[in-house]
Amino acid sequence: MWGCDEAKKVFEEIGEKNICTWNVLISGYVMNGQGGAALQAFSMMLMEIFKPDEVTFLGVFCACCHQGLVTDRAGLLEEALELIQSTSMEPSLHWSRPVPITVRSHVDWN
Fold this sequence. Notes:
By secondary structure, the protein is mainly α. The protein is 71% helix and 0% strand. It has one domain: Serine Threonine Protein Phosphatase 5, Tetratricopeptide repeat (Alpha Horseshoe), CATH 1.25.40. The chain starts with a helix and ends with a helix.
C-alpha cells in the first residue's frame, strides 16, 4: 500500500525513535490490514531494546488477529498471561478487554 510505504519512509527518517513512534508504525500497519508488517515492526522494536507498553500489545494482538494467529494459538492462554505478568504493566482496558473476548469466542466450553 502506498500509504504504508510512505509512513515507513517517514518513520525511518526520524532521528530519535521512542515507544510512541513505534506504536504509531505498528498501529498504522494494523489499520491498513498489514498484520505481518506490524509483527515485523514489533520484532524490530524489541531488537532495538524498546519496552512495549499496553498500546504496543494491543497493536500486536490486533496484528495477530489479522494474520489468523489468534485462532491458531487460542490454546495458549496461560502463556499469554505469563507474558503479560512478566511485564510491570497494570491491567488496562487497552488490552485486558480484547483478550477475554477472544478467548471466549475460541474456547469450547463443553
